[in-house]
Design brief:
Elements: H1 8-18, H2 28-40, E1 44-47, E2 53-57, E3 69-74, E4 96-99, E5 102-105, H3 112-126, E6 134-139, H4 147-151, E7 161-164, E8 172-177, E9 179-188, E10 192-204, E11 209-210, H5 222-234, E12 237-246, E13 252-253, E14 257-266, H6 282-303, E15 312-317, E16 321-325, H7 328-340, E17 344-348, E18 356-367, E19 371-380, H8 383-399, E20 403-410, H9 420-433, E21 438-442, H10 448-454, E22 459-462, E23 467-468, E24 476-478, H11 479-495
Parallel strand pairs: 3-6, 3-7, 7-22, 8-21
Antiparallel strand pairs: 1-2, 2-6, 4-5, 5-24, 9-19, 9-20, 10-14, 10-15, 10-16, 11-13, 12-14, 17-18, 18-19, 23-24
Helix pairs in contact: 1-3, 5-7, 9-11
Length: 496
């Protein structure tokens, strides 16, 4: 599919990677592919128990006395598909689409984050270029808590310079990032059998996106908005909760969510039947539910104007049946928990204008047989602020009589005023493009923080080609930008 795209050596390997399912937690096959790649070329390599792969290529002729360099990226992707897509992302490769300068996948995320890093690395390791000793580090499960980097044994690594290839804007050098953690809230929900009018309440049409990169755009969070819709319904109707689902990953802003409820009648103490109104029925239930949806649709269109204008709240009611449900005060606590969840930007940085300092994203909602679960990504460039926000979630869980677990904590990557690697990279960039690169810190998490803690004195910079809508089914990679970053990378390695 990608034959003829330039640079051919990079897109050859990118297509190979896309043919291998490699969502987070499903990386054994791609890890084995990388290890086999190294074996076939007699390259020194290490594959650990979790699947991380380190491949080392000696310096090219004339570069033996140059300092080595680490090239690093992660092999897992956020595997997201559109509701209409039939692909099984646990088993099937991606269906690639070339549209002008855009490379996409049919109905799914592309995995340019961070398949392009792996493709760059493999093209360099397979080719004959001028470079110092390359230590290519490919980690697993970055997208679900940087688990690979956390487990990585760095003893084979000699380099003190690291070029991370996990950024999404060409010409921007990232030199700092936020730290973070995953917070998992679980609420026990013993179900009983009840009869009522079934109703599926759904929120859709939101843009979603990366919970670090796009959180500052103040897009809607479908999980939290679902709590708002259900709370409004509780004021008019008596219902039990059969199921709730939303989102795809804790670090992806949820673009859709739904609840399956069984409605028994009017809410006690609520509006009740109006004068002349007939008794409660499927038709009456539908009228009330649709009225609530229309009201919230109007409110959200105004609140999310210019941010997330395609948001849609809708419901479909059916005929009376029975089902296993959470009822009464338990159902109310579940809705109150969703409604009370903080989300989005909590504080902006005073030191770096425009940079989000602290945020959180309730990204995944599920309801199993006896438990409601909410997975949340918390980020902050200040460790104290991250812990304070986690404490706030702990208090909310306590009030809702829920359990909470904090996992996957990772450190931030502090910006350094002095960075020889960054200075050299900027010098090469100026020579090549006759302009200055942009140097920034970001709110998203990068593995540089964990690796810098493992390798004292590590000098890091993160770069990458232009990508849009990562972690969504609309993800796209700029082909021309991928080519230019490759050109820059070859020039940089020649001068390191």
């Amino acid at each position: 599919m990608l034959e003829g795209l330039k640079p051919e050596e990079v897109f050859y390997y990118f297509e190979k990677i896309c043919g291998i399912p490699h969502g987070s937690g499903n990386t054994k096959q791609i890890s084995d592919y990388l290890a086999d790649f190294a074996k076939k070329r007699n390259l020194e390599h290490y594959q650990d128990e979790v699947g991380n792969v380190i491949i080392i290529k000696d310096a090219s002729s004339g570069y033996e006395d140059h300092e080595p360099v680490i090239l690093q990226g992660h092999m897992d992707m956020v595997a997201v598909k559109a509701p209409s897509a039939s692909i099984d992302m646990e088993k099937d490769g991606l269906k690639l689409i070339v549209d002008g300068d855009r490379l996409m996948a049919e109905g799914t995320s592309l995995g340019g984050d961070d398949g392009i890093a792996v493709a760059y690395g493999l093209a360099l390791l397979a080719g004959e270029y001028c470079h110092p000793r390359i230590e290519a580090v490919f980690t697993v499960d970055e997208e679900v808590g940087m688990n690979g980097a956390r487990a990585l044994d760095v003893s084979p690594i000699r380099a003190k310079r690291l070029i991370n290839l996990d950024s999404e804007e060409e010409g921007v050098f990232l030199a700092g990032c936020a730290g973070g953690a995953r917070v998992n809230i679980s609420l026990s929900c013993e179900k009983v059998k009840r009869e009522g009018i079934p109703c599926e309440v759904r929120i859709s049409g939101l843009l979603g996106g990366h919970s670090g990169e796009e959180i500052g755009r103040e897009r809607g969070n479908a999980i939290c908005l679902l709590g708002r819709v259900l709370d409004n319904l509780f004021r008019k109707l008596d219902f039990c909760i059969e199921n709730m689902q939303g989102g795809v990953a804790d670090n992806a802003i949820p673009s859709s969510a739904k609840a399956d409820i069984l409605i028994a009648g009017y809410a006690k103490g609520g509006d009740g039947p109006e004068k002349g109104q007939c008794g409660f029925s499927v038709e009456e239930c539908t009228r009330i539910v649709n009225g609530v949806c229309e009201k919230i649709n109007r409110e959200l269109k105004e609140e999310l104007a210019g941010k997330d204008e395609d948001v849609k709240v809708e419901a479909v009611c059916g005929q009376i049946r029975d089902g296993a449900v959470a009822e009464g005060t338990l159902a109310k606590r579940m809705v109150s928990l969703l409604l009370g969840l903080p989300w989005g930007v909590q504080a902006m940085s005073a030191a770096m204008p425009g940079l989000v300092e602290t945020s959180l994203n309730p990204g995944l909602l599920s309801m199993e047989e006896d438990c409601l679960k909410i997975d949340i990504s918390v980020r902050s460039s200040l460790e104290s602020a991250r812990k304070a926000l986690t404490g706030r979630l702990e208090s909310l869980a306590y009030l809702a009589q829920a359990q909470i677990e904090v996992t996957g904590e990772y450190p931030g990557w502090a910006f350094k005023k002095e960075s020889p690697l960054r200075e050299k990279m900027a010098e090469v960039y100026r020579k090549l493009y006759n302009r200055e690169p942009v140097v920034e810190a970001i709110h998203a998490g990068l593995e540089c923080g964990l690796l810098a803690h493992k390798i004292p004195g590590l000098d890091c910079v993160s770069i990458g080609p232009d990508m849009k809508n990562i972690h969504t089914a609309k993800e796209e990679l700029s082909i021309s930008s991928a080519s230019q970053v490759w050109e820059y990378l070859l020039k940089l390695l020649k001068e390191l």
